[in-house]
UniProtKB/TrEMBL annotation:
<dbReference type="InterPro" id="IPR000182">
    <property type="entry name" value="GNAT_dom"/>
</dbReference>
<protein>
    <submittedName>
        <fullName>GNAT family N-acetyltransferase</fullName>
    </submittedName>
</protein>
<keyword id="KW-0808">Transferase</keyword>
<dbReference type="InterPro" id="IPR016181">
    <property type="entry name" value="Acyl_CoA_acyltransferase"/>
</dbReference>
<feature type="domain" description="N-acetyltransferase">
    <location>
        <begin position="12"/>
        <end position="178"/>
    </location>
</feature>
<dbReference type="Pfam" id="PF13302">
    <property type="entry name" value="Acetyltransf_3"/>
</dbReference>
<dbReference type="GO" id="GO:0016747">
    <property type="term" value="F:acyltransferase activity, transferring groups other than amino-acyl groups"/>
</dbReference>
Amino acid sequence: MDRQPVLQGERVLLRPLRRSDWADLFAVASDREMWALHPSHDRWQEPVFRAFFKDALAQSGALAVVDLASGGVIGSSRFQGHVSGAGGDECAQPSQVEIGWTFLSRHYWGLGYNAEIKALMLEHALRFVDRAIFRVGADNVISRKAMLKIGGRLTGESTVEERVGRPVEHVVYEITRDSFAAGPLAIA
């Protein structure tokens, strides 16, 4: 699976993140209010965001989100943790990829941009894997509502990760090939 495709929708273009995107992306990320409910609520700070940006480049699955109308970078998302599936018939592990680390300028919140981004990423990913997973901070009400809105199903899986000097629980949502085909983001 190509984790850095170029994907175009009606309003956004997703393309591989580049080092040269730093200034534009930090201009978006430096909005303190954008991170208020996020587990990494300090990501608006330049040194913290610089580490996030460096990791995004190193993971080779990061995408810049470009607004087609303005040509400006308005956010970012990632494909990460690709598992091609393994095991025999009885213990087969489904192939999967994680979609996440998505953030958008607050000017684009509530206007369907996140849904368009996720639809493009899911349509691409589910051609290669059985399911896409999303790890969401258990207390991140905005992201949890967004997951339900795009057809995510809470799996009962969770992880605990260190964020801002404390353990933070993340719950796992999934969208499978079948649920995507029948869900709110299905592309005809």
